[in-house]
Protein 1
Amino acid sequence: MKPAILAAALFAAAAVRAAEAPSEFQRNAALFQSKCSKCHTVGKGDRVGPDLKGVTVRRTNEWLTSFIAKPGALLDSDPEAKKLLERFSGVRMPDAGLSPAQTAGLVAYLEAVSAGPSGPEEDAGLAEDPPEAKVRLPDEGRRVWWPGAAGALVLLAAALAAWRLAGAGPAAMLALLAAGAGYWSLGGRAYHRLLGDQRGYAPAQPIAFSHKKHAGELGIACLNCHHAAERSDVAGVPSLEVCMSCHGVVKKAAGAQGPSPEIAKLTAAWESRGAVAWNRVHSLPRYAHFSHRAHVADGIRCQECHGPVETMQTLRQAGSLSMGWCINCHRRPPAEAPSHWKRSGGPLDCAACHW
Amino acid sequence: MNEAQTDREDGIKRREFLELLGAAFAAAGCSPRRPKEAVVPALALAEGSLPGRADWYASTCGACTAACGALVKVRDGRPIKLEGNPDHPFSRGGLCARGQASVLDLYDSRRLRGPRKGDAPAAWGELDAAVMDALRAAGRSGKAVRLLTGTPAGPAERAAAAAFTARHGARHVVYDPVSRSAVLEAHALTHGRRALPRYHFAQARVIVSIAADFLGSWVSPVEFTRDWAANRRPADEWDLMSWHGQFEAMMSLTGANADLRVPLKPSEERGAAALLAGLVADRVGWTGPRAARGDAPPRAAKALRDAADLLAAAKGRALVVSGSSDVAVQVLVNWTNHMLAAYGATLELARPSFQAEGDDASLPRLVSELERGEVAVLVVHGVNPAYDNPHAEAFRAAARKAGLVVTLSGLPDETSALAHWSAPDHHALESWGDAEPGLGVRSLRQPAVAPLYDTRAAAETLLAWSGRPASAYDHVRALWRSEVFARQKAAADFEAFWSEALRRGAVTSPEPGRGEGSFDAGALTRLSPEPAAPEAAAFEPVPYASTMLYDGRQAGNPWLQELPDPVTKACWGNWASLAPEDAARLGVIEGRLVRLRAGALSAVLPAHVQPGQAPGSVVAALGYGRPAAGPVAANYPLEKLLPIEREAGGGADLYPFVGLRSVSVEVLPGMSLLAKSQTYDHLADPLTKKRREHLRETTLQELLSDPRAGNPPEPTAAALWPAHEYKGRKWAMSVDLSLCTGCSACVVACQAENNVPVVGKAEVRKGRDMAWLRLDRYYSGTPGEEVSESGEVETAFQPMLCQHCDNAPCETVCPVLATVHSTEGLNMQVYNRCVGTRYCANNCPYKVRRFNWFDYAHQDQTQNLALNPDVTVRTRGVMEKCSFCVQRIYAASSEAKSEGRALKGSQVRPACAQSCPAQAIVFGDANEAGAPLAEALGDARSFRVLPELGVGPGVHYRTKVRNKKV
């Protein structure tokens, strides 16, 4: 197939992919994108691992299949694999946990795209939507009026009390009211939302990891690192091994002069087998249970709850994670939600989350 | 006035201070600061595992020597639940209460952190050097080295023990705390082979048991329950239902499930066995030598005649078992089985069981060696000889004369208290090992977690002391390579074979049997003379292994301490059961302290009056009264939280009474109320004597003429509410009361799955136990008049849990809507909304709601590691109850969704249904056509409890069927 036609087909497919079941090729392309593209390209040169263009010609089908299925076993035994390992600085390919059907699909995909002059997949719109894609959180921009009103009432009551009980003069009362209004306008209102609303919470992290860099500029798909989200209830902060699968090689930021001090922190933690205690940003109460895999399987994009993470230098909480916020989606899924989702909505039973 | 002035002089008034304080708190409440919470990801995850997702490993349960197959659920690196392994050829998916509870033993905060010298921590090198020195010195001086163990856990441990004994010329002494020695000895006499046969209850249409509690604690209860239930299962061929007669002194779990149960004192077992054998010999025309004719009390004699008729008619499909420790009784039983052509059919010597190999005579022999000072080194593993046998006192005295005593126990116990060194073994969930419950069946044990402490596998310890150090992993693999892999043909490559064996948990190898052997009738003429009957006024003691504590090794386990006894429904400590006639004669009521005395021996226990018990017997459980079992066994450590009185000890030690023929019972002045989870014992209304129909029963004979026997149609009750429309799924359950034996595995499974707290003895006494699933036990008749028309006490069990009513009375009274109905028929309890009015519990006709009166017992941080992270830990003031394991429903639904398939109701199994050895519980979607649940709900035996209320329960039961052939 000609790359241009392919690219056009993929564009078209991407446009309607929410409504239609993806073709086998698209499924394989998506699989490559989520599982392999972090380290491999097709026709764009070596990255963490080798360029896979023409790999189906270089290697036999059996070798390739067994390598993808169980990289660890082959890296330990096969001389070819050992040579590769040496060439790529001893960075071992992790076991992606693919089914035999998925492995076969990947091989077929590599064969198909190798035929073209360069890998078209990155231009084909299969990557996560670009950062500027419009992401509307369910209750973003919705003003909550009553904390402000309550605050004003409290302030008024305090002023009255000061006048009646302490005999404060009008000037003192005015000063009190002015102080309150000042506080409010100078940012106090950011905090005085619904109690427990933690939007905007962005604690400093022990290593200044940037989602903007990784998810935004490098375009690494969310599931590449948070792969548990697909099969587990929790998305999980990636294990250091996941970081080191790239940073075993990548030691400095692109265009930077010297090695990055932040990557050095990571390497030090890995080498000393020390733990990195990240500060939790998204936290649900213990009596509320959320399943990532159920939402991912429903085609809900990560940004719909987590906000434009690919634009965040420091990760911050975008949604309020309050019950009303969840329920709003379960009742009225946003317009851009996949069609099957719109039909059913989410469950509204208490026991869907509380047990 | 004065005071106020003083305050003013200080610059602030008391009232102003309080105002400021209030304002400060209010301000703090508005603070935008949020406490920091750390997320520490793993450095590297184990292959294939994911955070937040459970991995399951096939292993072997280590709670007793039955070696059932277990699946270990590991969440984020911690084993949190054990379930039965359906692929295991013995247990086939069930797991008993003790097995389920053994996961909590892993997190017992009393576990030894490392080797010890006396009471002081030591290093392994130091310990090994000291032991090796002692062993070498023993070798030079020619003094004895003894290895004392229970039945070895499996071939790997047996090989390690053999290596040790070979190296040091030691003798391996094996005894079982709950002895099956008589069965093995009897087979040595009758078949020339000291072996424990493997019993096949599924093949037996007629079962007669003389005091063998095979559904509760005898040899392999999970396997036997599964097999027994196979012939109690509703089917088209109801006439194939088995008949089960039980002759016993105590009301055992097995007796409570028998079709005919006749009280029989231990001293009458010999006569009864001889009578039964003689009657069977008459009926099958036995021509060989005979044993002397026995006799039994009139009631038992009549029942034995009937039983003999049935047994002889079912020749080849009949089985007689006995739990007696009298070898002569077992010889008579073997003879009966031989005449019934049972060998090779309902029990097998060709492929014997290895679940009990102990020899009763071995321990007294060792004790006398110790007393003579002949033993230089004594290594103890897997048993607790200073407590768990009738010679414990002599052992404690004699062990001081041994040169060096080393125990491999991972917990401090009575033996480690007098040992010079402790070399703690791993918990079963931390170690590599294997088991061979029967010939040709090998079960693997794999670690589900890295050792929590500086412990060492027993096999490694023994190998290190044999001069052949090897890791337990290498040791097990080498053994499997040479013994198991070499004999099979299915796999050509050992690695492939090994990983498949690990995945399945057990391997069946087609080993040729050893032949059934021939019966030597001469043994009948060499029976030991019958001992003189105990004097009529004395009581015969019946110390028994209970469903909860068995031999007492798990006495420190709070789940088991709070698990009510299936029959008496009491927990926390043991009691002395008396027959109603004896209790009336002595003037004893429940809770009255009595003293059992035999010579210098004495045990003080609260009394319990047990309908159906043989008059003249006094029954009490083993495993209690352990001085070194820690605070839980003594009393639950709630005293930190609650001002409750602390009771000294947790019951009395009954081991010294094992084997005694008579004791005296003395009534003491005091009382100690039993902690019982059920205080109503009868189905009949005590006033009207009319039977209440919430547990329905019938007999096989009636059922054959009328499929709805005993189960009249539900009355139509007016409903106040419109019916729910379940367009999608409707979760429901069906419990077959014919299969449920009351074994209580489901109770502990539920506790483990749902983080159900333990509340302690004082709270249970107040009726505040928290079990979401309770097992109700009912006797026939009315209080004091339990004996039914058929002349026996009939018992029935009914698991009672939230019925998930359609028109749930709890839902309508909750003022805050904390309990509401789901679109799939679940009655939901929302903890975060509950304010604790307890209206719902008051309005529940089934009394299945539990209230958290306190923040119960989560102060043991180690123990908390066993909590299930998928289920909220409830706090004080919150109501809770069975959720139909909603976390499993949603997990299965998410799993199905992520795999792109539709969820079927039959794919969800709550913890209780999973663990049930009898498979009595069926769960699923009532709207799923063709599913097992739909079939169960459509059965003519299906009924619901209290249908007249019109609440529409979602839990259905099936009528209990008794086979009244006799």
Note: Chain B has five domains: 54-106, 116-178+359-442+457-486, 182-187+202-353, 540-676, 697-717+731-962.
Protein 2
Amino acid sequence: MTGAEILDGSVAAPPRDNGELVFEAPWQSRAFGVVADLVDSGAFSWNDFRQQLIEAIQTWETMASADQPPWDYYTCWVVALEQLLFNKVLLDPTELDLRSNEYVERPHGHDH
Amino acid sequence: MSQGDDHHHGSDPNSPEIRTEALEDLLVEKGLIDRARVDALIERFEHDLGPMIGARLVAKSWLEPEFREKLLDDADQVLKDEQIQGAEIEHVEIKANEPGVHNVVVCTLCSCYPWALLGLPPSWYKSPEYRSRVVREPRKVLEEMGMSLDPDTEIRVWDSSSETRFLVLPERPAGTEELDLEALTQLITRDSMIGVAEVKAQ
């Protein structure tokens, strides 16, 4: 992906309602909604989250190019959310790893 | 950005799809979030918020000089009067384009953006390229995005922060003198309110 492609919007989703598709994949909307609900319920503030997001983005930006995965904003978003939940002791890293591994092991065609 | 693999799960436990799903389920089980509330929030950001809200303010300021003056002077008060509320608009400043001055908005550190006026930002706004380059070489970036400005026009780049969000008040294009609020609102694009496009009469 080149800078020009990003800038002219050709990698962005199709336009809609004087804008464009807000989320490019369902998991992105879930990740967004989870943060919004945690802010609404007072688990942390948008500002707390913003600081964590800035850190996640900076971590990506300062990676050596050989290790740097392709840019993905919502991946940074999820990294920031995880880190903030760990810092606030609202979620245990091991617990999240275990659950993630469990979901990967699911047979195809599983039902939620 | 991946295309076409958004609808099945990867086999990587570290993929953001899997992590997000695991995280959401764990938070629901702990009672920290509520799935119905999350659904409603997503719905709101996908459908109720968007550039049409900012566009209405711009159109109104084109039609009513007094409103424009108030908007530029104290946008927060205008938003209160217009009953526009929502996350991320603690303090908004409106920057008016005028002959010889063009404004453009960025968030160099992350993705701060006036959600309640424009909805969530487009992906290019959040891209590392835009965030770093528009500060360094705004004229070139704007040109690449299809906007060539007169070399004498001063470009002002506004860096958003947690404290202040910016909205550009674009110039009203010629040939729109007969249009009413509704018709003008339709012309005003999200990009023109970020400052990377002009408003066109058609």
Note: Residues 1-9 of chain B have pLDDT under 50 and may be disordered.
Protein 3
Amino acid sequence: MAVVTRTPSEGVVLKKSTSSSTFTRVSRYVVVRLLTLFATVVIGVYLTIMIANMGGYVDQIMRNEVADRITQSIAANPAMQQLDPNARKKLIQDRIAAEEQRLGLDVPIAIRNFRYLSNALTLRLGRAINMTSDSGSKQVRLIILERLPATLLLMGISQLFLFFSSVFLALNLSRRYGNFWDKLVVALSPTSAVPAWFYGIFLILIFAAVLKVLPFGGMVDSPPPSNSFDYALNLLKHLTLPALSLVLSSFFLSIYNYRTFFLIYSSEDYVEMAKAKGLASRDVERRYILRPTLPNIITNFAFLIITLWTGATITETVFLWPGLGRTLYHAIGLYDIPIIVGSTIIYAYLLAITVFMLDFVYALVDPRVKVGGR
Amino acid sequence: MKFKQLYPILSLLVALSLALAACAPQQAAPTDEAPSAETQEPSSAMTEEPAMTEEPAAMPKTDRHGGWLDEIDVSVVAGDSAISQLQAGAIDLYSYGLASDVYPAIKEAGLQYSQSYGGSYSIMFNPAVFEDASRLNPFSNRKIREAMNWLVDRDYLNQEIYAGGSLAKFFAITTQLVEYTDLIDTVRALESKYAYNPEKAKEAISAEMTAMGAELGADGKWQYNGAPVTLIFLIRPDGDGTRKPMGDYIANQLESIGFTVDRQYKTSSEAAPIWRGSKASEGLWNMYTGGWLPSGLTRDERSQIQQMYLNTSVQAVDPFISNVSDPEFQKLGDDLAQGNFSTPEERRSMMERALELSLQDSLQVFLIEQVQYSPFNDNVAVTYDLASGVEGAYVGPYNLRFKDQEGGVLKVGTTDLFTEPWNTVSGSNWVWDSNIMRSTTMGTGNITGTAGLMGDPYTGLAWPQRIESAELTYRKGLPIKQNLDWLTVEAVDQIDVPEDAWVDWDATEQRFITAAEKFPEGTTANIKSVVTYPADLFETVRWHDGSPVSVGDFVMSMIMGFDPAKPESATYDESLVPGLEAVLASFKGYRIVSTDPLTIEAYNDAYNADAELNILPLWPLSPFGLSGENSWQIFAISNLAEANQELAYTSNKADTLEVEQTSWVGGPSLEILSKYLDQAAGESYIPYEPTLGQYISKEEADLRYSNFKKWFDEHGHFWVGTGPYYLDRVFTTEKSLVLKQNADFVDLADRWAAFSEPKLASVLLDGPGQLKVGEEAVFDASVFFKDEPYSQSDIQGVKYILYDATGAVVQIGDASFMSEGQYQVTLGADVTSKLPTGSARLEVAVVPLPVAVPAFTSLDFVAVP
């Protein structure tokens, strides 16, 4: 290691200079990073808007759907059947015009796109076009907030359990490379090729249809229990199968991934050296294996946390779980752009903030990393 | 060695997989079996007794008021798991209709089921001659479209795609419902004429193609201008998924006779801009797999001819506009739609001819009438509407019960709940929400644009729900007939509207405009109905919050039909204007003749062919045709919120103002409505006081608001009705709700027990297996219901149709009544002499009165010289 000798006075100047340059470096990094991330979010959201309305083609689809829906509703109304054909035609046209206005189809698509974009960036989520929240609100904020707790509950419990159990078990397996359990995990890891909803169907079949010990779906019984404790227990009962299906679908592969990852670090020279020095295996794990892998684990964990936001569309559908995944799926089917954009912008901001924060976290947990350094 | 260690684990996995696979519900095997001669009627699905195969659940006399059940718990259940959940006892009834491909699974599971119509499928043709003259559109030729009827085997489609649970469909009118049944001989003869006959189709199409300048190439493909005749076929793979195999089958059939088919699989939203949105003559498509919603138990489907074929169709999109129909067909369709006929007989003959011409026009070739199934457990009794099923039956909530007990908690699953906010101006009209709303109402339903009658689930007629007497007067010359005797009917030369009848609304002065003001010269109406309500109406009928119903509720309902669509109103909503204009085009006025007993006259120019459906009672039911009831006070506080632009009844106005749409059951609306309830209670507020002040006292207002507040505090919502069940609790996010028995309901639980099950007829035909041409032959038909002879007084007619070996109709006639349930068909020597030697078929069709569904049977025999 090189040794630098300097006078005390030089040292003070140097310290100030170093401090100042660190501040400048970090500030410059923060500004550039934030601008870059913001630009990425803008581009990402605008692309989402363009994709969601298929470059304007959705307008054509919506106009036809509006015309069809209104025509059929009037055609099916017995009170309208004896109306003079011209009066009926005018009635249909008036209603179509009113509905197109309500949907904003009378405003050019480019203007609407920029309106969606600016509203999204300023988090003015606005109103849905067709969808309503379960309680009847059209505010995108309420539609999302209403479904958020259910999604966080399902995804949170399943994904956090999956994460922590995988890391814990993987670490253990990496110490016992080649034993029976290690081989079992390796052998079962291909089971993760099966999606969660598929496990869900089987679990429903076994535990709801055959054994009749757990419910088929939904978040609580109908009617829901009136006191909080019973409600919580009931919720837990309904949560079991969807959470289990999400865990099962990734469990072995996740352990396998982490176990392989830990194995690579376990075979580093400095780990062998530590073992040779006679350090306790717990210390070896903590200081020589976990510590250097921490940035990766933290990254995975951080992304896992924001992924909770997206829900699990098909699993939620199979279990009739009132989560955000189903909401987003319905919104896409109905071309409800404000909901699609609302959901996307929140995810985009969460992702950008996470990426931004991770740079600092890396520097904190790994001394080899320097914020803004090259 | 290591692999050997894995063997037990792998074996265990394999065993587990097999065990799991064994647990799976058995897939219904598609049937290849050809139906037997006796059962090959396309009508098999509807003529067999559907749900009530067991002894009717005749309940003993009861002193129970309101619904049979103590509680109904309704929740959202995925249709895929409905049968499993019923078997597991998680639910007792799945009220939403499942597609007919689950029919075998329901039967295999030993569940009961109801049947109803779920819409229809057709092939729609582009009838235009293409602008690009180098391209030939074969379907611009009516004769080729007509020949397409012979090219498709509807029974095959029904068996292969719908597990035999749906119906073959040939006409725009609903198969085996009122119109169809009334025209039974005509439609059966036409169905026989247009039955599957690919050789005939090929012959007819070849002749027309050649005449149009096309040539059949050496490769067996049609060519035009040196290029293959390519048909662009838009096939929908979405929805219930059945249009794709249907489209593929038809494409195969077309390819088998030399066409080149470009199959374009497109979803609804992808296909609509092409078939609906493009100009037909651009030639972007030739065929489309069309689908149409069910029209319910509609007794009058004469406008379907215009709507489904003609360029004057209400559909008003290019495939229709471009259709150049036969002038006779065009006139018939338009005349039928506009009611240009003066007697039922004239109407009937017009319909007969129009149906015949519709198959010659075939802008659409109808293929399948979808039948839906709602399964339920064996211990449950369910009354359902023959057309619109469990969720469409007005009488359904009254008769829903466990077979062997009064009371109990019934668990119902459906496909969704709270799809849109609930209010009776412009709230949710989804069938699953409406079904719940109807459970909370007096059972009255919006049948003909007004409220106050109970819909007959089996005939589409109407019965009085809370009416003491009713009179109908109509202008002579209108083709109106009376079916039931609960009303008196009279035809007169002219009906004058009285000067003091209320014909419109002045939103500024908040009073009704009278006929004298709007029509100073006087005006007349086509029909007048007079309804007298029971003398104890206002003592016996109470809202769920305990307040008695009052005249104010009736008048408020009238006002709300007008006021929000008037620009001067504080609650003006421009999206409601077109609807009011349409109503005012035929509406001629209401007149409250007396408030004790309540007697209301109604005048109108629009009329229905059935006298019962022309009775226009008022009831505090949605003035906009939705399913819920509305007390005057719920409108009062909702209007206050609307006037202050904090809520809006319609989604259009809510979007414009960027406020919430009014919901009486959940969401942010409740807090706002609660605030205005407090305000109204504090002021003893009487809405529209210049008018309603005559009917509502301050004391009544205080009582109403006080009871309403207590109700909200207890139940957490503002949904009150007068029906046999009340909405106890609502869980919007959990998508479930609880209905409880209304023990204060005015009627006993068996009020509509007569509608417990449809009296569907069964018929057996017996006769010689061989007859001699030129000699008389006699066949016996037995008509029965549950092994008992079907009463002659309940039968409109028993008809027979004699077909020769080619399916051509030789003779149509009426069977002779012999004794109860016994009829005889005598084929005279003159008739049998028309039969060519060989096989022949005699079909008997029974048209019962208590249900709109006919019964068929047929017998094949041999005619020998």
Note: The CA atoms of residues 175 and 223 of chain A lie 50 Å apart.
Protein 4
Amino acid sequence: MQPTVDLKRQTTAVGTRKQWKLKGTWQLHTMLLPALAIVFIFQYIPMFGLVMAFQDYEPWLGFLHSPWVGLEHFKTMFEYEDARQVIWNTLVISTLKIIFNLAVPLAFALLLNEIYVMKFKRTVQTIVYLPHFLSWVILGGILIDILSPEGGMVNRVLTALFGIEPIFFLGDNDWFRTVVVVTDIWKECGFNTIVFLAALTSINPSLYEAAIVDGANRWQQTIYITLPSMLPIIIVVGTLSLGNILNAGFDQILNLYNPLVYKTGDIIDTYVYRVGLLNGDFSYATAVGLFKSIISFILVVIGYRLAYKYANYKIF
Amino acid sequence: MYHHYQKSLSYKIFTIFNYTFLTVAALLCILPLIHILAVSFSGSAAATANLVGFWPVDFTLDAYEKTIGNENFLRSLWNSFLRVVLGTAISMAVMLCAAYPLSKSDKAFRGRKIYMWFFVFTMLFHGGLVPTYMVVTKLGLTDTIWALILPSAVSSFNLILLVNFFRTSVPKSLEEAALMDGANHFTIFWKIYLPISVPAIATISLFTMVFHWNSWFDGMIYMSDVKHYPLSTFLQTIIVQQDFTKMSVDAETLQNLSERTVKAAQIFIAALPMLIVYPFVQKFFVKGIVLGAEKE
């Protein structure tokens, strides 16, 4: 294992290398150990903890002695009006986000691609990436201030331009989902253009040259060359976002919602947090979380399969 | 870069629209922050009366003085700093050590595939909030900085990025030569892989630092005492939740905390590190994203 030992053994090059490989793998396993331990403790042990979902878990009884209740909590979940509303809210918000977070950045990338003044292009890019780097706590603080019905910037502008009465964006069930979707696009749109811009630069220029010879205008080039060339990356982004259908944005909603808008804005993750950690109903909350994990798992696997099948995408 | 189609009238009209649209989009991304900055430098009365737009009214540093004078704020700033430094160092050390063996070929390192799936599976399935919370609690990590560092120390996504980087960027011939000279894996890792991978290490370190600076939820559920809150959690409590019950402060500090200008100053201070570093790191992020999206 020590270099000196190996040097002595260097009789023939091939023989040494074989020996070295056998000797060397223990080092490889050792190097993996810390990462394996951390992932096992903080990712895999919680998976075993999911048995709670089938028990009436009591902290003083532990996993071994808490009574088993089978699928009781799952039944409760589907019968309970609150839970059904929460699942519905999650689906509505996440579906809207998935659609717009694909379409808006794609359009944005196409528009940026038509800019030939590089300084302008780079400045716009840098500025629109900004909100991505700020956390929802900071953005939440900003949004609460500028969306406030009592003289928030947005309401002041709306009143000045259109004479509308101030709107309580974060406290009105008619508005809350719109605000959630729009602010999410606002935060991520710029950053989501990156993959599309990268794909745009890899399109073969000779395709465009041929089209120009044929007399195609820019719009026709976009429809017949650019978009078909982008199809693989659009498929990858679209199919991979399938797994997010039950992720409506925990960080964002926890920082924007309040009891006034639970009806339209409460999602599975925020519900699990309130019921489980704040009310201490561990088992029921775990059941709701498990329901989400299983559906997400199936959708992620389907998403990866589709991405592999139609766009030859592999994670590793 | 001048094309024939650019001469047409319709394309010229489109170009005017395009520049206008992109300028407006960029303004929408930056103006809210400028407004907050203007409020933070304004007089308290002007801010409360909604007189501030994008330029301070009755310019004063009062809000910043009050923020800096609040020991809760300073302590949480220190906690965040500690978390970013320690968290990133540990995370990088553990992930780099793991990425090295995983970057070997299946032939050179039997079992690589199994290990790889061990990590990837965590990207597909989660134990969920409550069981994870119970593991961290049972281990007695609550109210220590380890609760903020260890659970997230290995990010499978970043690990895969590092593995892919090792696989594509380290010349195999160099490694073979070192093997011939009798170097062991630790030496090859330390003397060849790490020096070559400085750009990748910088990129993933920045990912991790941004993650730690912005994280707030773990601080909220694992820290019972406001003394241990990182800055993000502290701000979440006083600005978003507007919950002052956990803070044992006198009436004057409480009054200060609820002032609009002070809130704006705190938001701006929390955003400042990101504002300073992100123009430099964005190109690394772009690389990372592209690396993750379209691999060999």
Note: DSSP finds 15 helices and no strands in chain B.
